Amino acid sequence: MDRPAPPPYSGYPPGPPGPPPVQVTHVVPGAVIIQHQIVGPDSTLITCRSCHQSVITRIDRRPSTRTHVIALLLCLFGFWPCVCLPYCMDSCLNTDHYCTNCGAFIGTYIG
Ligand SMILES: [Zn+2]
Question: How far is the CA of 107 from the centre of ligand 1 (A)?
Fold first, then answer.
């Protein structure tokens, strides 16, 4: 006839606590974290972090945003014949340092 009703379902019993949440370091996509060494405007004796050799850096000077801004300002103020000067002056260029042994990038000197 009437069977006894099953006890009301009270849900899952609390299980064992799960593993603690993993600490996630959020990195912005596309961001590159580079540890630079402090370098000067000229070739420098450093210990390369890549090949761990003591080397004299190879330097490569290149214009930066600041170089272009100076050239633009020269143009705007009527000094357009001098517009190439910032590109010829080392003090207006950034200096990239590279390892002469393995070619690794060492750092940039912002002139
Ligand atoms: Zn190296």
Answer: 12
pLDDT digits (tens, 9 = 90+) for 66-109: 999 999 999 999 999 999 999 999 889 999 999 999 999 999 99
Q: How many angstroms is it from 47 CA to the middle of ligand 1? A: 8
Residue 30 CA, ligand 1 centroid: distance in Å:
25
Q: Output the CA 62–ligand 1 centroid distance in Å.
A: 21
pTM of the model: 0.61
Q: Domain-by-domain residue ranges, the chain?
A: 45-110
- For 4-24, the DSSP string reads PPPPPP--PPP----PPPP--
